[in-house]
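Board work, copied verbatim: Glycosyltransferase, group 2 family protein
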Amino acid sequence: MMKVAAIVVTYNRKQLLKECLNAILNQTAEVERIIVINNASTDGTEDLFKKNGEFASNKIKCVNMDCNTGGSGGFYEGFKRASKVDADWFWIMDDDTIPNYDCLEKLLEANDSLNKNEDYNTGKRKISFFASSIFGQKGEFMNVPNVDLAQSKNGYQSYYEHLGDNMIRIKDATFVSLLINSKAVYKCGLPCRDYFIWGDDGEYTLRLTKYYGEAYLVGCSVAIHKRIGAKKLEISNFEDINRIKMYHYYIRNNIINTIFYNKDKNLFITFSKKIIQATCSIKYIFTKHGLLKILIIWKGTVEGFLQYNKFKKYILEQIKII
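↓ predict structure ↓
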């Protein structure tokens, strides 16, 4: 029987965290261990896990961070802790992810289905992770992964190879109900802690599919993402000044990911495209917080190119190919 350890990262969303944990505890498939990374919340989150707290349990371990390390720092710490636990799979999510009661069971069934295939049984093909289908509170499509469009031997794309088992092959995903093979983590290391927020999951899942094995979106495994605003992460959709200020992480991290995982593309072309995009940010000048948005876009663009080598070194050290 496969052993699963869940990793949940939380910051100042006590009520959502309670809903998330109850959903995990009430799954039709058992979770052996739950590791909660509390990113220095100030809303009483840590009280939930104290001796007489609502979630005081030997099954649940709450790690209280000294400061808010962002989603990436939280998952870094979560993977680090989970790697010391006896588990075959790590089921990861933020505190605003509410998995359906059979979400985990469907992910595990997907693995069982693939293991009937001789290629997976013999180790010729490996699985990095399975991703749930994610919807917003009103049924909106959210956290949609990129399909793996790699060509098969005969030149056609084969991403729908296992469509009959409710799966399509993907190349990356977000940290919203992912079931990750612990062997893939041991091979590929830990996420980029210093990404802080946005893009860390894209980098890490690309790392898993590139350096370990395949990944699949499981159609019948469903989770609800209760993120405020179900729209795509674009600065034009932001009105909260604090989220606008953080957007430079999104731009920086995605520039780094683009360069590292598209080595066959011309760096000059990538640089030119990003500079053009930054220049086009002038269109925000007459919008709410327009000047700040422009400055943030340029800040993220400059950081992406200046900090690329630092993050490249870290990623290569994690997959131990230096």
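Residues 107 and 250 are 29 Å apart (CA to CA).
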